[in-house]
Amino acid sequence: MDGPVFTWRRFPALLALASSCVTSSVASPTPQESTTNSSFWPQSCCDALRSSLGSKVSLPNSSAYNASISSYWAQQETLIHPACVVSPTSARDVSAALKVLVPRRCKFAVRGGGHGAVAGIANIQDGVTIDLRGLNSITVSSDRKTVAVGGGQKWASVYAKLQPLGLAASGGRNGPVGVGGSTLGGGFGYFSTQVGFACDNVARFEVVLANGDIVTASPTSNANLWKALRGGGANFGIVTQFVLNTFPLGSIWAGDAYFSPEALEAQTQALYSLTANPNFDVNTGLVVNYAFSPSTGPIITNQYVYAQPIINPPTFQAFTSSPGQLMNSTSVTTLAAFSAAQEPISPNGFQQVTFSSLFKNDLQMLRDLWNIYTASTQNVAAVTGIQWSLSLEPVVPAIAAQSSARGGNVLGLSIPQEGLIMVLLTATFSSASDYPTVQTAADQLLANIIQAAKSKGVYAPYVDMNHAGKSQDPIATYGAANQAFLKAVARQYDPTGVFQALMPGGFKV
Ligand SMILES: Cc1cc2nc3c(=O)[nH]c(=O)nc-3n(C[C@H](O)[C@H](O)[C@H](O)COP(=O)(O)OP(=O)(O)OC[C@H]3O[C@@H](n4cnc5c(N)ncnc54)[C@H](O)[C@@H]3O)c2cc1C
């Protein structure tokens, strides 16, 4: 089939992300709003850091500083200018940095892969940004059951290391996404139905605490910290190493297929039935996207991944046989190649607005969702460069079973037999001047989705941290017991609340 000629190329990568109008949890200062409010001037924080860490601290206008600041995914993050960037290469460096910053009450941000979509999540105006990308080791254990990954690595490198060994790890779908942020926020990937979320597969964390101590968190050492880090975000310490379980994976069948709205009813029924299937095939990884740009109008762009080299397996045939297919790029490939290929189709440097929501799998809700979505496109159609993508991801009971088999997490996701549908907005556009228009449209769309789900009795309050919008409060949706547990663990390991007060970026307990 002929490939499309216009901007559809970018849509399949718009798999993720989100923002909303709910409660406030993330501290996400715009450059204008940001304040260091510390008892030391930012410059003296940087001077003290330089005394301790020398050339690992870079100042504005240096090449190291510029390389760090310009390499975030979201344009919003690149517009934030810290007083200095510290680039540790070991846990001891991270410890040394915190021993300088914390007693001086210097405000700081922690940057992993830099793929967060919220301004200020991993960068800080006039503060100190700790850029972890120098923590980039990847070591496979001798029994090949685990891989130890530095806290600043990206999934593409992990998959590339494991691929020749016939192995993989549960992680993000796009290669450039950071292991750090995505794992601490849960980590829903292609193979979650087979092996659980990324966070479920962390056998051991190496963590630098607020006081500079370097500790191990595992089922046998600081077990409550280990559990809290499985979805609790950056509230407890800086993770300098993730020891991840591996699983066997050879070649896969994967790719994208685009459909005109003619396919809608067939696609909707296929999504409902696949998600509700009591015999769900756990090799299945699926994302259905509703995608809009002014040049294409609304279309449907599916991403299929099957964990075996089987072309068009039965699990996807209700999708692949539906009318209105415009393009199909599926092939037998590898996870390493497929995830790396996502990088150019979801490029750095654009403004981003995101949100996350969830509802019970319901045919009428799915039918109404398309209408709610297409109506929302009118609010952004005039925005320069807009790509307005709503991703729908099946959340099936097999995932919960895998999570609990691996020691559980703090996400509090209860998955009914008929499954859930996770909904993620990714709005990508060119100019900061359009931000208010896009954010308002996103807020309205989220409110309409929630209202429709509530009116049908299918609303599920869970918000995925990795795709949450700046005003959403994911941890508040994990359930009262998990929230209380996370607060208690934060108090135990960080009694003065450094990772909330001095590190304002990220979603807080
Ligand atoms: C194109 C794209 C595709 C995506 N696909 C997926 C997907 O398939 N599945 C999924 O679950 N999510 C996905 N995401 C969302 C992604 O998981 C989140 O944006 C995540 O926060 C990115 O992590 P990062 O380390 O790259 O980001 P950063 O912006 O660097 O960090 C995000 C947060 O994590 C903290 N953090 C990062 N590393 C550490 C560390 N080592 N120790 C302590 N704190 C740390 C930061 O301080 C910050 O608060 C995708 C995002 C994009 C842009």
From TrEMBL:
Tell me the leader sequence span. 1-27
**Which GO-annotated molecular functions does the record name?**
FAD binding; oxidoreductase activity
Keywords, A to Z, come to: FAD, Flavoprotein, Oxidoreductase, Signal
Which PROSITE patterns is this protein grouped with? FAD_PCMH (PS51387)
Question: Pfam families, per this entry?
Answer: FAD_binding_4
Q: Which residues form the FAD-binding PCMH-type domain?
A: 78-249
Family label: Belongs to the oxygen-dependent FAD-linked oxidoreductase family.
User: Could you identify this protein by its name?
Assistant: FAD-binding PCMH-type domain-containing protein
Its source organism is: Achaetomium macrosporum
Biological classification of the source: Eukaryota, Fungi, Dikarya, Ascomycota, Pezizomycotina
